[in-house]
Structures are given as structure tokens and as C-alpha cells.
Amino acid sequence: MSTSNPLEQTASGSPASISSRTLHIAGILAVVHGLEEIAPSCKSVSVLWLLHGRLGSKEDMTSTASKCINDWNRWSSSDRKVGLIAVAFDQRNHGSRKVQSIANQAWKDGNVQHAQDMFSIFHGTALDTSLLIDHLGSFIFLGPDAPSIDQHLVLGISLGGHAAWQVFFNEPRVTATIVIIGCPDYMRVMTDRARLSKLETYTSSNGVDFLGSKDFPKALISSIKRWDPRGLLFGTSEINPFPSEKEQVRLRQILDSKIKGKQILICSGGDDKLVPYHCAEPFITFLKNATSEWYKDGNVYVEDNVYPGVGHTYSEGMVNDTTRFIGDILTGKPGKPASKI
Known about the structure:
Elements: E1 20-25, E2 28-33, E3 44-51, H1 62-75, E4 82-89, H2 114-136, E5 148-157, H3 159-170, E6 174-180, H4 186-197, H5 200-203, H6 218-227, H7 229-234, H8 245-258, E7 263-269, H9 277-292, E8 301-307, H10 316-331, E9 338-340
Parallel strand pairs: 3-4, 3-5, 5-6, 6-7, 7-8, 8-9
Antiparallel strand pairs: 1-2, 2-4
Helix pairs in contact: 1-10, 2-3
InterPro entries: AB_hydrolase_fold
Organism: Hyaloscypha variabilis (strain UAMH 11265 / GT02V1 / F)
Protein name: Alpha/beta-hydrolase
């Protein structure tokens, strides 16, 4: 299935520009937004990592960085102690890192390795986020009286949203995540895409034998079990939103090691055909049930918003919820699990 840039249709207008500085870190060009706007009184800095969509680039995230930072700087006082910067970088095989154009395309566009290519690319982005977290502080805030980087948040859109789910589950230093039109269940969303693409490996068995076929190899499934949220918790088994007490013990161990104390905002388009909400819904339903009932003591905040009439785009409503969520995180407001449809 083809895609377009989900940021092209954002209806929030053009926010005032902010400073940007491009750094070379570990072979990656990282654009740091908002450094010059950090107040002299600032003692602590939060970093918002921005992950762009498929066929896009780090430049696509400039408006999002400006909107988030400008809103925070307006809300906080001139003598604010907490500052916000944002960092954008090209996903693997995108922008300055492009190696092979066909690898960014879908089955319908002639890429027979679509499933392998897409997963490995955004998995690489999740790993790059951790790598850059390791090293960002070595390149900014170098003086003895400079503020410290004390918090990391991630915002991912579309392909970046898939990566953001992986960061949420696999990077302990990221304590808050915003997923825009992304999915935590790669097997489900790609099986659905294979159906829509009428792949022979799907149609020949009505999907029964698709997982493990040449279009979705067993080695890919092994990687999914290690990194994908659904794969980490359930493997290839069906998702049970109401697990038994015995199963809860097993799941609790994973949740404790992965997301305890974290917060996540999930924004999905009600009319999204590329990454349909129904593909993410079973996992999100499980997560909401767990964090509001038997895993309530895990102190995980899950906000699940579905926007009626919105397709595969970063809508104005999503933008507004994003800046509100970031403001709540930076001011330390306690979150209450919520759902808005």
C-alpha cells in the first residue's frame, strides 16, 4: 500500500520559527531545535526526540519541534527552571541516509521485501534513538554551570510511530511517548496490508499461512518477538485482553521490566486506511485493561485517542493533544488513564 507524507495535511498552521543547530553524532546528522531559547535560569532540560514518517526526512519535523517548544516556552515563566529542546534525525534509508529507494516502498509499489525492509528500518531508528541519547550530552551544554539533561520523551509519526512504540518498550531512559498513527502490532498490521495488497502468500490460504511465508519470513518473526510490543508480550499467540491470573504473573514481569512508571499518548485516525486503528486495537485494549486493573500498581498512564473522520495524517486535534500532553509531563502533573473516541 502506498503512503503520502502525513505531515503535509497538518492543519495547525506554521508556528514561529526557533533556533536549530545541526550536529554530527556517531555518523548521524541530528538537528537540535530550541537550544538558543533555553532560559539562563534553566537547570534541567527535557529532550523531545522526533521520528519522522516513511518517505520523509528530519526536515519534516521542524514545524512540530517549533510548535512543541514555543507552546512550552509560552506556558512556562521567563525564569523557568525546566527547558525543552527537540532533536530530529533521518530514519535509516531516508533523507541524508538513503541508500536504496525501493526499500522504502510497499508491496504494491514493487518492493517484494516490504515487510523485512520496513521493520528493520524503524527498528534501526529505535536503536539510533538510544545511541543518540547516549551521546547527545557530549555535544551540548558543556560548561560547568550548564543545565543537565534529565528527561527524554519521544514523538513518532507513522513509520516513526512504529519506532516510538519500540522505544517506549525498550529504552528505559524514555519515560513518556507520543505515538501518532503508529502500531504496536507489526504482525497484525502487515497481515492486513498483505490482504489489501492481495499477495499470493495471503490469498492462497486466506492469511493462515502468511506468517512464515517468503513475504513474512520466520527470521522476521524472531526479531518481532524480541522488539515489537505485541511480539514481546504474546509472540505469535492471540492477544488476550483479559489474561488469567497465571498469565498475569508472566506478563507482569515483562511490563515491570519495560514500561513501569511510563506514560504514553496514542493518537489514531478513525478513517486511517494505511495504519488502521483496528490493527492496534487488540493490543491497546489489553494495555488499557492491564494498566487500569491488575497492573494498576505499575503506574503506567495510557491515553488512547481516536479522531473521527481523520485519515493517515497528523491532524490539528492530534497536535493540540500532543502539546497538552508534553506540558503535563514537563510540569509533573499526574496522569489518569483515559480514552477518547
